[in-house]
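To whoever picks this up:

The nightly regression suite flagged Cytochrome P450 as changed. Nothing in the input moved, so I suspect the structure step. Input below, exactly as stored in the fixture:
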Amino acid sequence: MEAALAFNMVLSGLVEAYASTVATAFTILVFFYVFFCSFTRNAKLPPGPFSWPIIGNLHQLGNLPHRSLQVLSKKYGPVMYLRLGSFPTVVVSSAEMAKEFLQTRDLAFASRPPSAAGKYLTYNYKDVTFVPYGAYIGHARKLCVTELLSAKRLESFRFIREEEVSLAMRSIWEKSREGRLAVNIGKAIASLTSAIVWRILVGARYSDDDDGDLVGKEFRDMVLEIAGSIHEVNIGDFIPYIDWLDMQGIKKRMKKASRSFDGVVQRILEEHVKFKGTQTSKVKDFMDVLLEMAETDTMNIGEENIKAIILVLSVGGIDTTSTSVEWTMNELLRNPHVAKKLQQEIESVVGKNGTVTESDLGSMEYLQCVVKESLRLYPPGPLMFPHESTEVCTVGADGPERFMGKDIDIKGREFSMLPFGAGRRGCPGASMATRSMELMLAHLMHCFDWSVDGDPSELDMSETMGIALTKKENLFAIPALKMPNWI
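Regenerated output under the current build:
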């Protein structure tokens, strides 16, 4: 009944707006559906639910697709087959099979399907996230890993992370009126993450007030709009025959958000070009590095490539990190014995009135365990960006031939946790994200004791999907200063 209702709602919306067009389109689509069914009837596919004509299983995704797919996987298994609109889809939810797709058969599944986000937000696939696999993505990712996100480059930005975290702790104390008011932890961490990421990417100061190079609300709203449009299920991506209708208005919003972002980044890009080479004492930000790479690179990386890379790093770096820290703080408030043990470890490393630096984080084993457990419970992206197969292959086949010519450790690599993906399309910014998370959490727990009004076990744990798995309601908590000599 639910599936039939969803199917009828889609058709009725089309008929109201485009009655004559839909009549013809419906006939054509049914023909393709019948053809597809006859073509795949004898294919060896994983089990899965019944799919309707045209929409397939789209109606079963719901507002929280990761939860809906979890329910379906309990019935159909860790590898199941869905048809999302016109596209046959395999959903994998086991460590063993994730390794098959992301490591053993990584190259065959390293591409991306076409999407409105890739076309309209990243200058027609000039980024490193949405672009289909090919010579460019392999080269661009290598440059990102070796030049932008190398250990040496991340270390050069250490002073930025430490400086912004310290400023944020003081701001939290002032906004709480010295511990008398609850602070919006989600908003505070989002502002802190934005400040760090924006300075690292383009060297500009971010502020929630009017004293920065870029006013916080303008930038935050712009990033949230882009992240929201990336997450939203665009029917046209799954049913290309009706993509031109833009039924949900997603493409229109993407184009508007892209123009806003382009206006900001183009201005900053022109400033970087203008002052290139004149600020010898300045630490090079990502845009400086990308401009240098553009001059010497053989793959013809241009201005649009630079702006597209800055866009995906802005959206991905800000939303995912801030969300993960907020979820972790939420769990620490619900589990005070864990919070106390973490604070004791931090004090044992830096002292009661010491300041946490990044060089201290390696000595905080329990902090690293807290971060890992939080990422296990609340992965930044519970659903990875879709992978597209580019060749016919058999996954999970039995037989000794699969091990021929390969030196494989039978203990393998652990694939039960993939908060940042894996393989050729894994997140290149994972090291920066975890380093920032650990530093933020260490300061938050070392500078303050935290409490909430009411029972911590009753804190709201509801979720909402964006580009990251975010809390539906922001976390509010009251800080009590632990370091009297700090103020």
